[in-house]
Design brief:
0% strand; 179 residues; elongated; 6 helices
Length: 179
């Protein structure tokens, strides 16, 4: 009988402790499956090769126009200063000839810049994948032509403004194009 009591007490103790152990277990939470992609699971789409190549060409033209406007500033200022000085006082012939040669170089540089911008704009007009970005870049050839006309009219400092407008259009185009 002592053994039955001992076994009975033992079974009760096991039952009590087993019940307490299950009460302390936390139920497993079900993970909610989210339909939203996480940053690590999203796949990056690469734009077509034609768009990437055009973006690089736009970046090159942005660099060209920026550098040209920055370098052109002091040069055209000195051209116009020498022109004003030539009207008011007698300057040496060598200085006047050098100034005229500089004017021709500036006009030639604007024409070369215009050719690059015109080529870029026509590429956006002719390629179907690029035509949706044409709205942003359209008119850069006209702006370069206006810069050339202004320089030909002898207003060299004012000829930078249309190029700055073309630069704005180019940067707008870069912003619209995928990376």
């Amino acid at each position: 009988m002592t053994s039955i009591r001992f076994v009975g007490v033992l079974l009760m103790a096991i039952a009590i402790f087993a019940g307490a152990a299950t009460a302390q277990k936390k139920p497993a939470k079900k993970r909610a499956t989210s339909k939203k992609p996480t940053p690590s699971s999203t796949t990056k789409t690469v734009p077509p090769l034609e768009v990437r190549a055009a973006r690089e060409k736009v970046e090159v033209q942005v660099a060209n126009v920026t550098r040209f406007v920055d370098v052109m500033g002091p040069i055209v200022q000195s051209i116009e200063t020498l022109d004003q000085s030539a009207k008011t006082k007698k300057l040496p012939k060598a200085t006047i000839d050098k100034n005229e040669a500089t004017k021709l170089k500036v006009i030639e540089a604007i024409q070369n810049l215009k050719a690059g911008l015109s080529s870029l704009e026509s590429e956006f007009r002719t390629k179907p994948l690029l035509q949706k970005y044409l709205v942003s870049i359209e008119g850069i050839t006209d702006l370069a032509a206006r810069s050339e006309d202004t320089a030909l009219a002898g207003k060299y400092v004012a000829s930078k403004e249309p190029l700055r407008d073309a630069l704005k259009k180019l940067t707008d185009t870069l912003a619209a194009m995928p990376i």
